[in-house]
Specification:
The structure is a single chain. The protein is an all-alpha fold and 285 residues long. The chain has a domain at 112-276. It has helices spanning 2-36, 40-50, 60-74, 83-106, 113-140, 154-179, 193-206, 236-241, 248-252, 255-258, 268-276. The longest helix has 35 residues, at 2-36. 34% of the residues are buried.
Protein backbone atom coordinates (compact mmCIF):
# COMPACT_ATOMS: atom_id res chain seq x y z
CA UNK A 1 0.00 0.00 0.00
CA UNK A 2 2.85 2.39 0.88
CA UNK A 3 4.50 1.61 -2.45
CA UNK A 4 1.30 2.48 -4.38
CA UNK A 5 0.90 5.67 -2.33
CA UNK A 6 4.48 6.76 -3.11
CA UNK A 7 4.00 6.06 -6.82
CA UNK A 8 0.86 8.21 -6.81
CA UNK A 9 2.71 11.09 -5.15
CA UNK A 10 5.50 10.79 -7.71
CA UNK A 11 3.05 10.83 -10.63
CA UNK A 12 1.20 13.84 -9.22
CA UNK A 13 4.49 15.71 -8.71
CA UNK A 14 5.60 14.94 -12.26
CA UNK A 15 2.24 16.12 -13.53
CA UNK A 16 2.64 19.41 -11.65
CA UNK A 17 6.09 20.01 -13.11
CA UNK A 18 4.85 19.18 -16.61
CA UNK A 19 1.95 21.59 -16.23
CA UNK A 20 4.29 24.28 -14.95
CA UNK A 21 6.57 23.84 -17.94
CA UNK A 22 3.60 24.28 -20.25
CA UNK A 23 2.52 27.35 -18.27
CA UNK A 24 6.00 28.85 -18.41
CA UNK A 25 6.30 28.33 -22.17
CA UNK A 26 2.89 29.91 -22.78
CA UNK A 27 3.69 32.95 -20.65
CA UNK A 28 7.06 33.51 -22.34
CA UNK A 29 5.55 33.13 -25.81
CA UNK A 30 2.83 35.63 -24.93
CA UNK A 31 5.46 38.02 -23.55
CA UNK A 32 7.45 37.89 -26.79
CA UNK A 33 4.25 38.52 -28.77
CA UNK A 34 3.60 41.61 -26.66
CA UNK A 35 7.20 42.69 -27.23
CA UNK A 36 6.85 42.27 -31.01
CA UNK A 37 3.72 44.45 -30.85
CA UNK A 38 5.70 47.22 -29.16
CA UNK A 39 4.03 46.74 -25.77
CA UNK A 40 7.29 46.65 -23.84
CA UNK A 41 5.89 47.43 -20.40
CA UNK A 42 3.25 44.70 -20.67
CA UNK A 43 5.83 42.30 -22.05
CA UNK A 44 8.15 43.01 -19.12
CA UNK A 45 5.32 42.29 -16.68
CA UNK A 46 4.57 39.00 -18.44
CA UNK A 47 8.24 37.94 -18.46
CA UNK A 48 8.42 38.80 -14.77
CA UNK A 49 5.41 36.57 -14.13
CA UNK A 50 7.34 33.73 -15.77
CA UNK A 51 10.00 34.01 -13.05
CA UNK A 52 7.51 32.41 -10.65
CA UNK A 53 8.24 29.07 -12.35
CA UNK A 54 11.56 28.59 -10.55
CA UNK A 55 10.80 24.90 -10.03
CA UNK A 56 11.99 24.48 -13.61
CA UNK A 57 15.63 23.86 -14.45
CA UNK A 58 16.13 26.92 -16.62
CA UNK A 59 14.18 30.19 -16.69
CA UNK A 60 16.93 32.11 -18.51
CA UNK A 61 14.66 33.12 -21.37
CA UNK A 62 12.43 35.10 -19.00
CA UNK A 63 15.44 37.12 -17.82
CA UNK A 64 16.58 37.61 -21.41
CA UNK A 65 13.14 38.97 -22.28
CA UNK A 66 13.13 41.33 -19.29
CA UNK A 67 16.55 42.61 -20.34
CA UNK A 68 15.41 43.41 -23.86
CA UNK A 69 12.26 45.10 -22.54
CA UNK A 70 14.39 47.31 -20.31
CA UNK A 71 16.61 48.22 -23.26
CA UNK A 72 13.63 49.31 -25.35
CA UNK A 73 11.88 51.10 -22.49
CA UNK A 74 15.13 52.97 -21.76
CA UNK A 75 15.01 54.44 -25.27
CA UNK A 76 11.63 55.98 -24.51
CA UNK A 77 13.51 58.44 -22.27
CA UNK A 78 14.79 60.71 -25.01
CA UNK A 79 15.22 64.02 -23.16
CA UNK A 80 18.59 65.02 -21.69
CA UNK A 81 17.00 65.36 -18.25
CA UNK A 82 16.15 61.64 -18.40
CA UNK A 83 19.72 60.41 -18.85
CA UNK A 84 19.90 58.94 -15.34
CA UNK A 85 16.61 57.06 -15.80
CA UNK A 86 17.74 55.74 -19.17
CA UNK A 87 21.08 54.59 -17.81
CA UNK A 88 19.42 52.98 -14.79
CA UNK A 89 17.23 50.87 -17.07
CA UNK A 90 20.24 49.84 -19.13
CA UNK A 91 22.01 48.83 -15.92
CA UNK A 92 18.95 46.74 -15.06
CA UNK A 93 19.10 45.15 -18.50
CA UNK A 94 22.73 44.22 -17.85
CA UNK A 95 21.75 42.57 -14.55
CA UNK A 96 18.93 40.70 -16.32
CA UNK A 97 21.27 39.35 -19.00
CA UNK A 98 23.89 38.38 -16.43
CA UNK A 99 21.22 36.52 -14.41
CA UNK A 100 20.24 34.65 -17.58
CA UNK A 101 23.87 33.64 -18.21
CA UNK A 102 24.33 32.50 -14.62
CA UNK A 103 21.17 30.39 -14.60
CA UNK A 104 22.00 28.80 -17.94
CA UNK A 105 25.56 28.02 -16.85
CA UNK A 106 24.27 26.20 -13.78
CA UNK A 107 21.48 24.37 -15.58
CA UNK A 108 21.70 20.96 -17.20
CA UNK A 109 18.91 22.02 -19.57
CA UNK A 110 20.70 24.59 -21.76
CA UNK A 111 18.99 27.29 -23.81
CA UNK A 112 19.17 27.14 -27.60
CA UNK A 113 21.82 28.73 -29.83
CA UNK A 114 19.21 31.23 -30.99
CA UNK A 115 18.54 32.35 -27.41
CA UNK A 116 22.26 32.49 -26.68
CA UNK A 117 22.66 34.77 -29.69
CA UNK A 118 19.80 36.98 -28.49
CA UNK A 119 21.41 37.13 -25.05
CA UNK A 120 24.84 37.99 -26.47
CA UNK A 121 23.34 40.71 -28.70
CA UNK A 122 21.62 42.27 -25.71
CA UNK A 123 24.92 42.38 -23.83
CA UNK A 124 26.70 43.92 -26.84
CA UNK A 125 24.19 46.78 -26.86
CA UNK A 126 24.45 47.27 -23.08
CA UNK A 127 28.25 47.31 -23.16
CA UNK A 128 28.21 49.67 -26.14
CA UNK A 129 26.03 52.11 -24.23
CA UNK A 130 28.40 51.86 -21.26
CA UNK A 131 31.39 52.55 -23.47
CA UNK A 132 29.76 55.59 -25.09
CA UNK A 133 29.00 56.95 -21.62
CA UNK A 134 32.56 56.33 -20.40
CA UNK A 135 34.10 57.95 -23.46
CA UNK A 136 31.84 60.97 -23.04
CA UNK A 137 33.03 61.26 -19.44
CA UNK A 138 36.64 60.78 -20.52
CA UNK A 139 36.52 63.77 -22.85
CA UNK A 140 34.05 66.01 -21.02
CA UNK A 141 34.30 65.34 -17.29
CA UNK A 142 36.95 66.66 -14.94
CA UNK A 143 36.65 63.54 -12.82
CA UNK A 144 35.09 60.63 -14.75
CA UNK A 145 33.60 57.79 -12.73
CA UNK A 146 32.50 54.27 -13.67
CA UNK A 147 32.10 53.00 -10.11
CA UNK A 148 35.43 51.17 -10.21
CA UNK A 149 38.16 53.74 -10.52
CA UNK A 150 38.23 56.22 -7.63
CA UNK A 151 40.91 58.31 -9.30
CA UNK A 152 40.38 61.38 -11.47
CA UNK A 153 43.39 60.41 -13.58
CA UNK A 154 42.32 59.87 -17.17
CA UNK A 155 44.91 57.16 -17.78
CA UNK A 156 43.53 55.13 -14.89
CA UNK A 157 39.96 55.70 -16.05
CA UNK A 158 40.91 54.41 -19.51
CA UNK A 159 42.70 51.39 -18.04
CA UNK A 160 40.05 50.45 -15.44
CA UNK A 161 36.83 51.41 -17.21
CA UNK A 162 37.08 52.01 -20.94
CA UNK A 163 39.39 49.17 -22.02
CA UNK A 164 37.59 46.37 -20.08
CA UNK A 165 34.22 47.33 -21.58
CA UNK A 166 35.69 47.46 -25.08
CA UNK A 167 36.99 43.91 -24.55
CA UNK A 168 33.56 42.85 -23.23
CA UNK A 169 31.99 44.05 -26.49
CA UNK A 170 34.46 41.98 -28.50
CA UNK A 171 33.96 38.87 -26.41
CA UNK A 172 30.16 39.00 -26.52
CA UNK A 173 30.06 39.79 -30.24
CA UNK A 174 32.50 36.94 -30.92
CA UNK A 175 30.20 34.65 -28.94
CA UNK A 176 27.17 35.98 -30.81
CA UNK A 177 28.63 35.21 -34.24
CA UNK A 178 29.76 31.80 -33.04
CA UNK A 179 26.15 31.03 -32.12
CA UNK A 180 24.51 32.63 -35.16
CA UNK A 181 26.67 34.11 -37.91
CA UNK A 182 23.80 35.86 -39.70
CA UNK A 183 22.08 37.13 -36.58
CA UNK A 184 18.55 38.48 -36.82
CA UNK A 185 16.51 39.39 -33.76
CA UNK A 186 13.28 37.43 -34.33
CA UNK A 187 11.15 39.86 -32.31
CA UNK A 188 12.32 42.98 -34.16
CA UNK A 189 13.77 42.32 -37.59
CA UNK A 190 15.32 45.79 -37.73
CA UNK A 191 17.97 44.44 -35.34
CA UNK A 192 20.45 42.12 -37.02
CA UNK A 193 24.12 41.36 -37.62
CA UNK A 194 24.57 44.70 -39.40
CA UNK A 195 24.10 46.49 -36.08
CA UNK A 196 26.75 44.32 -34.45
CA UNK A 197 29.20 44.79 -37.33
CA UNK A 198 28.58 48.54 -37.15
CA UNK A 199 29.45 48.57 -33.44
CA UNK A 200 32.56 46.45 -34.05
CA UNK A 201 33.69 48.67 -36.96
CA UNK A 202 33.32 51.83 -34.89
CA UNK A 203 35.04 50.17 -31.94
CA UNK A 204 37.97 48.88 -34.00
CA UNK A 205 38.49 52.29 -35.58
CA UNK A 206 38.41 53.98 -32.16
CA UNK A 207 41.15 51.70 -30.85
CA UNK A 208 43.31 51.58 -33.99
CA UNK A 209 42.38 47.98 -34.73
CA UNK A 210 43.50 46.95 -31.22
CA UNK A 211 47.17 47.01 -32.15
CA UNK A 212 48.20 47.73 -28.55
CA UNK A 213 49.05 44.31 -27.15
CA UNK A 214 49.44 45.91 -23.73
CA UNK A 215 45.81 47.08 -23.64
CA UNK A 216 44.36 44.30 -25.79
CA UNK A 217 46.29 41.07 -25.21
CA UNK A 218 45.03 37.90 -26.87
CA UNK A 219 44.71 36.37 -23.41
CA UNK A 220 41.71 38.66 -22.77
CA UNK A 221 39.69 36.98 -25.51
CA UNK A 222 37.19 34.58 -24.01
CA UNK A 223 37.48 31.14 -25.61
CA UNK A 224 34.36 29.66 -23.98
CA UNK A 225 31.64 28.86 -26.54
CA UNK A 226 33.54 30.75 -29.27
CA UNK A 227 34.57 29.15 -32.56
CA UNK A 228 38.25 29.47 -33.38
CA UNK A 229 37.59 31.63 -36.46
CA UNK A 230 35.94 34.25 -34.24
CA UNK A 231 38.61 34.23 -31.56
CA UNK A 232 40.25 37.49 -32.58
CA UNK A 233 40.02 41.27 -32.39
CA UNK A 234 38.18 42.80 -35.36
CA UNK A 235 39.55 45.04 -38.08
CA UNK A 236 37.46 48.12 -38.81
CA UNK A 237 37.61 47.84 -42.60
CA UNK A 238 36.67 44.16 -42.56
CA UNK A 239 33.80 44.84 -40.19
CA UNK A 240 32.21 47.60 -42.23
CA UNK A 241 32.51 45.40 -45.32
CA UNK A 242 30.48 42.70 -43.54
CA UNK A 243 27.47 45.00 -43.36
CA UNK A 244 24.78 43.81 -45.78
CA UNK A 245 22.57 46.88 -46.13
CA UNK A 246 24.63 50.01 -46.74
CA UNK A 247 23.16 53.48 -46.49
CA UNK A 248 22.85 55.61 -49.61
CA UNK A 249 25.85 57.63 -48.44
CA UNK A 250 28.00 54.48 -48.26
CA UNK A 251 26.84 53.38 -51.71
CA UNK A 252 27.55 56.82 -53.24
CA UNK A 253 31.06 56.70 -51.74
CA UNK A 254 31.66 53.37 -53.48
CA UNK A 255 32.21 51.41 -50.24
CA UNK A 256 30.82 48.27 -51.88
CA UNK A 257 33.51 48.46 -54.57
CA UNK A 258 36.26 48.83 -51.97
CA UNK A 259 34.89 45.75 -50.22
CA UNK A 260 35.05 43.55 -53.30
CA UNK A 261 38.75 42.79 -52.67
CA UNK A 262 40.11 40.53 -49.93
CA UNK A 263 42.08 43.34 -48.31
CA UNK A 264 39.94 46.50 -48.56
CA UNK A 265 41.65 49.88 -48.37
CA UNK A 266 38.86 52.34 -47.69
CA UNK A 267 40.10 55.95 -47.29
CA UNK A 268 39.64 57.28 -43.76
CA UNK A 269 37.29 60.08 -44.79
CA UNK A 270 35.14 57.66 -46.81
CA UNK A 271 34.98 55.23 -43.90
CA UNK A 272 34.00 57.94 -41.41
CA UNK A 273 31.39 59.41 -43.73
CA UNK A 274 29.89 55.97 -44.28
CA UNK A 275 29.98 55.11 -40.60
CA UNK A 276 28.36 58.38 -39.54
CA UNK A 277 25.50 57.81 -41.99
CA UNK A 278 24.29 54.86 -39.95
CA UNK A 279 22.04 55.51 -37.01
CA UNK A 280 20.04 53.54 -34.49
CA UNK A 281 16.37 54.64 -34.23
CA UNK A 282 15.20 55.55 -30.74
CA UNK A 283 12.55 52.82 -30.77
CA UNK A 284 15.18 50.10 -30.61
CA UNK A 285 18.61 49.64 -29.02
Amino acid sequence: MKKIFCILIFLIACGDVGEQKIGYVEIVENAWNLFSDGKYHSARTEFTNALDYQVLNNISEAYIGIGWCNLYIANEFTELINVSSRNALRDLAFDNFENAKSIDNESADKITSELNAILAAGLVFVYDYKLLDYKDQYYNSLCPDCGISASCELDEFRRDCIIPVAIDIINESNRLFSEQENFEFPYDYSINSDDINFIRARLAYSFNDFISEYEFPLSELNEENVLIEYLEYPNYQDEICKINDFTEVCIELGIEQFCEVDDPNIPYDYFLSCLSSFYTPTINP
